[in-house]
Recover the amino acids of this structure.
């Protein structure tokens, strides 16, 4: 099975900061990498699919990039409502895999 | 509007079974798959399995094989997940999610999620 490693496990940033999270896959997954936001008490939310496609209605301050085995998720200007856990996710050989998550909070 | 509405919270004894339902509305239920994901307290998201609504074909995570069954009722646009032989460490929030799966099974992503069903396993 593919293993996804997110870094950092947690980070603190200030309002307006540019925030970057990386997701490293244990093998080539082309661009089949998705990003979700999960806030306490709420359902997870799809932000980015196929590495860089923004889901409908998602703010343009979120973006994703990468291919092969290294992927990046970026928030261009952090807002208070972005405090959450962020997960990458992929699919290979009929198995769904999530990264371990990155906790983002305000400094 | 697309919605997935899940059944209410459950409290179960160890060794019991739980059935969680997920009622879809606002879209063609047959045209998408349904994935089940859970999150235990303080843990990350964990994939349980998924069902192709059109065919009824299922695929379960290896750790749940033999203990989980996923079904759908097309007449009510409802997906169901039954998990048997519950253990106390399986206390978690269980989510259903509408899922896009590539024809060649090359991609899989979940774009609409239910609100979650808390299952507490405790004696």
């Amino acid at each position: 099975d593919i293993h996804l490693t997110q870094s950092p496990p947690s980070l603190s940033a200030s309002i307006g900061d540019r925030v970057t999270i990386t997701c490293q896959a244990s093998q080539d997954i082309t661009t089949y990498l998705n990003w979700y936001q999960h806030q306490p008490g709420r359902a997870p939310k799809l932000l980015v699919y196929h590495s860089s496609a923004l889901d409908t209605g998602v703010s343009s301050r979120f973006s994703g990039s990468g291919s092969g085995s290294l992927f990046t998720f970026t928030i261009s200007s952090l807002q208070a409502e972005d405090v959450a856990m962020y997960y990458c996710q992929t699919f290979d050989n009929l198995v769904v895999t999530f990264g371990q998550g990155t906790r983002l909070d305000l400094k | 509007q697309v919605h997935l509405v899940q059944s209410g919270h459950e409290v179960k004894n160890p060794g019991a079974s739980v059935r969680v339902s997920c009622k879809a509305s606002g879209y063609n239920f047959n045209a998408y798959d349904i994935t089940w994901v859970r999150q235990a307290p303080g843990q990350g998201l964990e994939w349980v399995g998924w069902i192709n609504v059109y065919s009824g074909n299922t695929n379960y995570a290896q750790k749940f094989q033999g203990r989980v069954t996923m079904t759908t009722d097309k007449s009510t646009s409802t997906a169901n997940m039954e998990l048997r032989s519950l253990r106390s460490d399986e206390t978690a929030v269980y989510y259903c999610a509408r899922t896009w799966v590539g024809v060649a099974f090359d991609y899989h992503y979940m774009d609409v999620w239910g609100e979650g069903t808390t299952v507490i396993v405790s004696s």
Remarks:
- Residues 13 and 106 of chain A are 5 Å apart (CA to CA).
- Chain A touches chain B through 25 residues (CB under 8 Å).
- The mean pLDDT of chain A is 97.
- DSSP finds no helices and eleven strands in chain A.
